[in-house]
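Quick one, tokens below:
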């Protein structure tokens, strides 16, 4: 039976444009950080965003600084964590925490040919923003074991859409991508988003808002082109 706390958190997060993305009950071998009061974590719940839902809530807080989304996320999540008696941790904490591995324990996401986790409902248009660590057991929804949509995608247009062929079965050519973003042609990606990501047919109707795409592409350019 689903815990009422899970339902309540889902509703509270929806009001902020965020979403409860599932969770799991860790064992000692998972090496999850401790929950409140130094007690071990018995339930981990993931929080993230899907599609364009987050953008109207965050956009007024985008002041152009590199950490604007991180600061907004912390400001939103910390009071929610206090109210439900949980500790919150974030992907931008240091040292980094294995959010991608946690995600694969929490919901039906798998690695796509681009290396980004793909979800049957959200495609490539989602991200993880925080995790709540509980010292007690929160009942979770039944596991969702749907297979990766990539398994039935014969053409894999994501691998042929990049103008510099930065993606292949062998991995991601970061230098080629970074060089293209600095060229005149790179404006297409910076303004409209990664062409390989856009080519994925899964959940195309959940694509990020155009301003949201530009925001993330600016952040990506800063990451791959220092200075």
């Amino acid at each position: 039976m689903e815990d009422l706390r899970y339902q309540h958190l889902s509703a509270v997060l929806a009001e902020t444009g965020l979403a409860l993305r599932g969770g799991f009950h860790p064992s000692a071998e998972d090496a999850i950080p401790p929950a409140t009061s130094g007690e071990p974590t018995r339930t981990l719940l993931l929080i993230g965003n899907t599609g364009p839902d987050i953008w109207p809530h965050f956009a007024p807080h985008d002041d152009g600084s590199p950490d604007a989304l991180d600061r907004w996320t912390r400001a939103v999540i910390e009071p929610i964590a206090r109210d439900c008696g949980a500790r919150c941790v974030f992907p931008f904490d240091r040292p980094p925490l294995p959010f991608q591995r946690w995600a694969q324990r929490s919901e039906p996401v798998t690695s796509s040919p681009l290396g980004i986790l793909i979800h049957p409902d959200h495609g490539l248009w989602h991200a993880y923003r925080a995790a709540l660590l509980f010292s007690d057991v929160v009942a979770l929804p039944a596991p969702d074991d749907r297979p990766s949509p990539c398994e039935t995608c014969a053409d894999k247009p994501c691998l042929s859409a990049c103008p510099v062929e930065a993606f292949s079965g062998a991995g991601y050519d970061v230098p080629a991508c970074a060089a293209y973003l600095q060229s005149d042609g790179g404006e297409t990606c910076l303004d409209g988003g990664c062409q390989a990501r856009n080519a994925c047919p899964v959940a195309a109707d959940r694509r990020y808002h155009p301003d949201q795409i530009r925001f993330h592409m600016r952040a990506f350019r800063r990451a791959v082109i220092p200075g």
